[in-house]
Amino acid sequence: DAGVIQSPRHEVTEMGQEVTLRCKPISGHDYLFWYRQTMMRGLELLIYFNNNVPIDDSGMPEDRFSAKMPNASFSTLKIQPSEPRDSAVYFCASSLGGPSYQPQHFGDGTRLSIL
Amino acid sequence: AQSVTQPDIHITVSEGASLELRCNYSYGATPYLFWYVQSPGQGLQLLLKYFSGDTLVQGIKGFEAEFKRSQSSFNLRKPSVHWSDAAEYFCAVEASGGSYIPTFGRGTSLIVHP
Question: Per the CB 3.0–4.6 Å rule, which of A46, B9, B12, B65 could disulfide with A34?
Answer without folding.
Answer: A46
